[in-house]
């Protein structure tokens, strides 16, 4: 089964084709115009007309690809890990697709995005996710295997993690920036994207650290944002809202 493409990728490829065809068309038209202007003893005229036809054809193809790019339909699925929207050109049936935002494979079965459960790694206590489709779970943080087994007496297909407590965390969290760290420029850029604010607004916020950046986040999302900020040298924390 062919891999399902992202709508944005297909639009980009089609637009690129349109760009080359139209560019070629314009170049042919320009050469034709020059030949018609300086026709020499008239010998260039037939060549000029050939180029005119070529230009019309190329631009026609270009328009065709523009129309195709516009017709790309997209199906949205929501990543169960980071809740980001992913636009695909068709509904996936049983093939997992990588998430644009967090790069984890979104588990899909029978056209439905499976929900994911959380488990903490018994070795490093890092948070991991698994679905009923997960065959083997390796810790995202320390790479050790977290054993899963089929829950007895249940035909739901739900697996539970063996030996480690399954976290059923439906609490809300807030994201607190404790310290900016050394690479404040990187952190500013990251926060601009994360909070959809401009540079000056972000700088104002940073004057008052520790500062709450976002509230009411699920555990998975807040952990992801903390990791993202730590990657840029900042110190951030997830605090539970009770
Ligand atoms: Zn994701
Ligand atoms: Zn681990």
Description:
With 242 residues, the protein is an alpha+beta fold. The chain folds into four domains: 7-71; 73-114; 115-168, N-terminal domain of TfIIb (Single Sheet); 172-241, 2-Layer Sandwich (Ribosomal Protein L30, Chain: A). It is built from five helices and 16 strands. It has helices at residues 7-37, 45-71, 184-195, 199-206, 219-231; strands at residues 75-78, 85-88, 97-98, 105-106, 108-109, 112-113, 117-120, 127-130, 137-138, 145-146, 148-150, 159-161, 166-167, 172-179, 211-218, 235-241. The strands form seven sheets. It has a three-stranded antiparallel beta sheet with strand order 8-7-13, with no helix packed on it. A three-stranded antiparallel beta sheet has the order 15-14-16, covered by helices on one side. It has a two-stranded antiparallel ribbon with strand order 1-2. The longest helix is centred in the N-terminal third of the chain and has 31 residues, at 7-37. The radius of gyration is 27 Å and the shape is elongated. The relative contact order is 0.10. The structure holds zinc ion (2 copies). Residues 121, 123-124, 126, 139, 141-142, 144 line the site of one zinc ion.
The overall strand count is 16
Average residue pLDDT: 84
Task: Give the termini distance in whole angstroms.
Answer: 47 Å
Q: Give the count of structural domains.
A: 4
Q: Which CATH architecture of the largest domain would you pick?
A: 2-Layer Sandwich
CATH class of the largest domain: Alpha Beta
Coarse morphology: elongated
Oligomer description: single chain
Could you state the order of secondary-structure elements as H and E?
HHEEEEEEEEEEEEEEHHEHE
Structural class: alpha+beta
The biggest beta sheet is recorded as: 3 strands, antiparallel
Kindly report the spatial arrangement of strands forming the biggest sheet.
8-7-13
CATH topology of the largest domain: Ribosomal Protein L30, Chain: A
Unreliable sequence segments: none
Binned strand content: 15-25%
CATH superfamily of the largest domain: Ribosomal protein L7/L12, C-terminal domain/Adaptor protein ClpS
């Amino acid at each position: 089964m062919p891999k399902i493409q992202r709508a944005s990728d297909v639009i980009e490829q089609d637009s690129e084709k349109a760009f080359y065809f139209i560019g070629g068309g314009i170049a042919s038209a320009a050469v034709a115009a020059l030949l018609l202007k300086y026709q020499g003893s008239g010998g260039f005229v037939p060549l000029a007309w050939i180029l005119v036809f070529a230009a019309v054809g190329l631009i026609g193809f270009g328009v065709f690809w523009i129309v195709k790019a516009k017709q790309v339909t997209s199906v949205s699925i929501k990543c169960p890990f980071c809740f980001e929207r992913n636009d695909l050109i068709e509904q996936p049936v049983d093939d997992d697709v990588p998430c644009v935002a967090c790069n984890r494979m979104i588990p899909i079965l029978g056209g439905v995005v499976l929900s994911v459960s959380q488990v903490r790694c018994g070795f490093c206590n890092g948070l991991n996710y698994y679905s009923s489709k997960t065959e083997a779970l390796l810790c995202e943080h320390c790479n050790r295997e977290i054993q899963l087994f089929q829950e007895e007496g249940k035909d739901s297909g739900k697996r539970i993690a063996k030996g480690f407590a399954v976290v059923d965390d439906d609490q809300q969290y807030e994201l607190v920036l404790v310290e900016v760290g050394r690479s404040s420029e990187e952190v500013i850029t990251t926060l601009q994207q994360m909070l959809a604010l401009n540079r000056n607004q972000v700088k104002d916020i940073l004057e008052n650290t520790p500062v709450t950046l976002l509230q009411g986040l699920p555990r998975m999302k807040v952990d992801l944002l903390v990791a993202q900020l730590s990657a840029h040298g900042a110190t951030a924390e997830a605090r539970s809202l009770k």
